[in-house]
Amino acid sequence: SSSAPKTRGALIAIEGLDRAGKSTQCQLLMDRLAERNVPARLQKFPDRTTPIGKMINAYLSTSTTLEDHTIHLLFSANRWELSAHILKLLNDGVTIVLDRYVYSGIVFSAAKGLSLDYCRAPDVGLPRADVVLFLDLDAEVARRRGGFGGERYEVEAVQRRVRDLFKEVGEKEEGRWRVVDAGRSVEEVREVVWGVVERVVKEVEGMEVGRFE
Ligand code: ADP
Ligand code: 2DT
Ligand code: MG
Prior knowledge:
Layout: E1 11-16, H1 22-35, E2 40-44, H2 51-60, H3 68-91, E3 95-99, H4 102-110, H5 116-120, E4 131-136, H6 139-144, H7 156-173, E5 177-181, H8 186-203
Parallel strand pairs: 1-3, 1-4, 2-3, 4-5
The site of 3'-deoxythymidine-5'-monophosphate has 9 residues, from helix 4.
């Protein structure tokens, strides 16, 4: 065992509209991190496996209806229930790749008419992503990638509002928010994502994990 201080892992969030390629790029990023011997875990939000996640899944699959504030708080609670585990892994040197995070939480609820300030509040204090890769895709190009799966929010008008709200929320993140043109090939997007992540993994050395504010 070494007494050298362990460097912490990076918290990497992949965000974007439906079919922008988030899940595809999360997997490719995990593969690349493994190739480079960077310890890493993938965490998808919502995490539908927990009891709260099961309620969220029922809501998204439209088998249940929930009042807008109620489901908003459940999405946030789903992040809080995993936050101590995430923080522990980061401090143990494990990089975490997030397939959606607080940004999806804010914009999907705001698209239903809740205020942005209200929507941010329950997530304040969660581990802050060191970088957010926003996979930006034109609605028309997204449509050509195949049909919606039939879940709640998988309708064109919602997606358009969400895209505008993501831009607004991203402005507050300043340098941490990276817009990636997701209309390019899978391989081209993968290389852009890797270029950013490779740098961030090094940059977080010696930096404490921030808190979302
Ligand atoms: P998301 O998780 O953002 O909804 P996915 O990664 O599931 O998106 O990708 C949605 C669909 O688009 C899948 O069929 C996937 O193979 C395809 N896809 C992903 N990235 C690209 C790309 N850069 N160009 C073309 N098709 C893509
Ligand atoms: P996928 O499982 O296909 O990514 O879709 N959502 C997600 C919210 O409304 N609030 C949240 O906090 C999060 C993380 C976006 C999940 C759907 O759930 C929405 C699409
Ligand atoms: Mg996905």
